[in-house]
Specification:
The complex is a heterodimer. Chain A is mainly α. Chain A contains nine helices and no strands. Chain B has eight helices and seven strands. Classes of the chains: A mainly alpha, B alpha+beta.
């Protein structure tokens, strides 16, 4: 049995380029993460997400020779996924509200701490409040905060995904946090 | 994990015979972007050199000294064609750099400021090589709309009642100290002048003040047919103008120097 799980992304790329069937290993590795990310930044149905995933992986396969190993493969594939979602929004001419999805208590606490918001004892209520506030944010801050706090990407990775300078990402995150905090207060979520 | 998606993707790859785009395509695209960026930077620098030439040679400040409410006209005196060209090529350089593989990592303001600084630096060097005048002359004679643009731009020179006139030298009568001028509003004039009108007064004044043991060399401007000139003087009759100062608005040849004997 081929031990693909211990191969690096770069090794799997080389394998996929040598034989199309080997591309399945990259898809196995990234399908859950990309699927979860699309779910977080859109309100697409399961079928729409599957349809989009197929398009994303086809695009990834076509552009495999453009992958630069100086970049993290995850950043590169997230970038393609992000751009495909934005293209899909443009085609349907709307951007649906974000939906809540499963995030554990540790992550809730971490997010609350990072965003300087008071933690609610009720996990479910806390999650709903967070998503209500995130939905009220300007679009440019929504994705960045999701990448930072829900996908747990660092500044360099977010810069590579969104193709913006790292300094700009830092500024956008700070502004997004401030705006989220204001919305949180405005919604009277502070006790 | 959904195996169904992986299988569907692999089937599509096989059925539609999808292959990864070859590497040379991406390399070529990147080189092209860098190539266009470099070209835009060079052309922008050339435009800066001509901008410097135009500013230095339009002698606009001599007109300001004449007064006549010229203050509002100072903005008309700027060489807008070259300003637009510089802006367009800086923008082109910026957009090309941003789309290169690593261009997005650079702060956009840094790209723009860097572009401007490099264009000014290179443009200044190009100006001092004398290439700027050749570029401007080429543009004037070869780019169809540039001549009209230039004439419209320099119409601030055509105010004979206020004592200044600008246009193109058409015919020269050396013995009569007279030449025909086609001004920038397409009117024809007979210009009467003397040789002192061709001598830069400041150079002459500095020359007189220098110590006798040092040679006194100044550049003398010679009239040529097709030369664009600015004149300061007075209208003596309809269609006739006496020039006390004649300035080349753009010149491409090195001016000959003559020795002034004390």
């Amino acid at each position: 049995m081929f031990d693909w799980q211990n191969k690096t992304d770069q090794e799997l790329v080389i394998l996929a380029l040598s034989r199309a069937d080997n591309f399945v290993y990259l898809m196995k590795r990234y399908e859950p993460k990309i699927s979860a990310y699309i779910k977080k930044i859109s309100n697409f149905s399961k079928e729409e997400i599957e349809d989009l995933l197929q398009e994303i992986f086809i695009k990834v396969y076509r552009n495999l020779n453009n992958y630069d190993s100086k970049l993290k493969f995850s950043s590169w594939i997230y970038r393609i996924a992000h751009n495909e979602v934005i293209s899909r929004f443009r085609k349907i001419k709307s951007r649906p509200a974000l939906i809540s999805c499963d995030i554990d208590d540790n992550l809730i606490n971490k997010i609350a701490s990072n965003l300087n918001i008071e933690r609610d004892l009720d996990h479910k209520l806390m999650k709903e409040k967070l998503y209500t506030c995130i939905n009220q944010l300007e679009k440019k801050y929504q994705v960045i905060l999701i990448l930072k706090f829900f996908e747990e990407k660092d500044y360099e990775e977010i810069a590579d995904i969104l193709k913006k300078p790292a300094g700009t990402i830092a500024t956008l995150i700070n502004r997004g946090k401030k705006q989220l905090h204001k919305i949180w207060q405005k919604n009277n979520y502070e006790r | 994990m959904n195996d169904n998606i992986s299988q569907k993707v692999l089937e599509k790859i096989k059925n539609e015979k999808i292959v990864p785009t070859p590497k040379w395509y991406f390399l070529l695209k990147n080189y092209l972007l860098w190539g266009v960026f470099s070209l835009a930077l060079i052309i922008g620098s050339l435009a800066v050199s001509v901008f410097i030439l135009a500013i230095r040679n339009n002698h606009a400040f001599e007109l300001l000294i004449l007064g006549n409410s010229l203050n509002y006209k100072i903005f008309r005196m700027l060489p807008y064609f070259w300003i637009i060209l510089i802006t367009a090529f800086i923008a082109l350089a910026y957009f090309n750099l941003r789309y290169t593989k690593d261009g997005y990592r650079i702060n956009p303001y840094l790209i723009i400021v860097g572009n401007i600084v490099i264009s000014i630096f290179l443009g200044t060097i190009i100006y001092f090589t004398g290439l700027a005048a050749k570029i401007e002359s080429f543009a004037y004679h070869k780019i169809p709309f540039y001549e009209n643009f230039y004439k419209r731009q320099n119409r601030f020179w055509v105010e004979p009642k206020a004592g200044y006139l600008g246009g193109i030298v058409r015919e020269i009568k050396i013995n009569n100290n007279e030449f025909k001028l086609h001004d920038f509003t397409d009117q024809n004039w007979i210009i009467i002048y003397n040789s002192q009108a061709l001598t830069p007064p400041k150079a002459l004044h500095n020359c007189v003040q220098k110590k006798p043991e040092k040679p006194c060399l100044i550049s003398l401007f010679e009239l040529e047919i097709g030369q664009r000139v600015g004149l300061i003087g007075e209208e003596i009759a309809p269609g006739k103008f006496r020039a006390i100062k004649i300035r080349p608005l753009i010149w491409s040849k090195k001016l000959p120097k003559i020795e002034i004997l004390r």
